[in-house]
Amino acid sequence: MGSIMSAYTSHVTAKPASNSHVEDDDDLLDGKDREDDIAQFPYVEFTGRDSITCPSCQGTGCIPTEQVNELVALIPYSDQRLRPQRTKLYVGLSVLLCLLICGFVVFFLFPRAVLVEDGGIRMVQVWFDNENKIVNLAMTSTLHITNSNFYSISVDSLISQVQYMNTVIGTQQQTNVSVIQALSEKLVNFTVKLELGGVLSYLYNFCTLTTVKVHNIVVFVRTSVKFSYVGHTSQSSLETYQYIDCGANSTILTDHYAL
Q1: CA-CA distance, 169 to 174, in Å (whole number)?
Q2: Is 140 in contact with 214 (CB distance < 8 Å)?
Q3: 171 or 256: which carries more pLDDT confidence?
Q4: Mean pLDDT of the region 160-173
Q5: Which of 39, 43, 197, 208 is the most exposed place for a label (fewest CB within 10 A)?
Q6: CATH of 114-251, one of 3.30.1490.20, 2.30.30.240, 2.60.40.10, 1.10.287.3510
Q7: DSSP 81
Q8: Phi and psi dihedrals of 98, rounded to 5?
Q9: Per-domain boundaries in the chain
């Protein structure tokens, strides 16, 4: 009798286990159904007691492609992206870099004065017009020009006028004379043709006098030089007194610079 009761009890207790398994299967099916229902449920915004469909995605959960450029994203004020780091440092470095660049540009491009010095007379050639008692001379002079700029300059024109006793005896004008490289110096030669005649015809006797070995006369030379560089033009004038020998050809100075 006891064995029968035990078997009956086992049979009775086994039934609930079978029912529990069936209930778990039903719950699993119900869970899948709920997920499907939730997937089909529109996106809504809950505002207190009521709720409204999400206006951005219209309840679909996806933003339409044609509205991508029309939507605005809200970023919290505490977001670090709104607080860039080391802003003052970057701004200070940028300003300092700009100042350094401007300083270098001004330093290298700022026009500096071009120094023009008298280089003396290199050579004098003399011809006598015995019939008209005129002394003709070709006086070659030298200018020593120093370029202190960090770029080359162009000597656009050179005008020289020679006077003797307030009388103009020769004028020479040249254009596109030379180009002087940056931070360099150069000797520029120019020749002025002189004529001692007319009111100065008395000099013919002095210049041809054989008893005198040196026939020096003093002439006044006024020279004007015009330069151009980096869109800037400047002019320099030079006035000197020179001794020349009107009696014979002569070479006075030796050239010490490359022309």
Answers
A1: 17
A2: no
A3: 171
A4: 95
A5: 39
A6: 2.60.40.10
A7: G
A8: -65, -40
A9: 28-74, 114-251
- Euclidean distance between CA atoms 60 and 62, whole angstroms: 5
Structure tokens at 231: 């869109």
Contact indicator for 158, 199 with CB cutoff of 8 Å: no
Distance CA 249, CA 175 (A): 27
pLDDT in tens, 71-87: 777 778 777 777 777 88
pTM more than 0.85: no
**Rounded Cα distance, 39 and 243, in Å:** 113
Quote the CA–CA distance of 143 and 181 in Å, as a whole number: 16
Give the span between the Cα atoms of 125 and 141, in whole angstroms: 12
Amino acid identity for residue 120 in this structure: G
**Residue 133 in contact with residue 103, Cβ under 8 Å?**
no
DSSP state of 60: S
Where would I find the beta strands (DSSP E) of 7-81? 44-47, 50-53
Tens-digit pLDDT profile for residues 118-164: 999 999 999 999 999 999 999 999 999 999 999 999 999 999 999 99
Please count the CA atoms within 13 angstroms of the CA of 209 that sit on its side-chain side: 12
Scanning the structure block, which residue is given the tokens 């800037």? 232
pLDDT at 222: 96
Average pLDDT of the segment spanning 163-192: 94
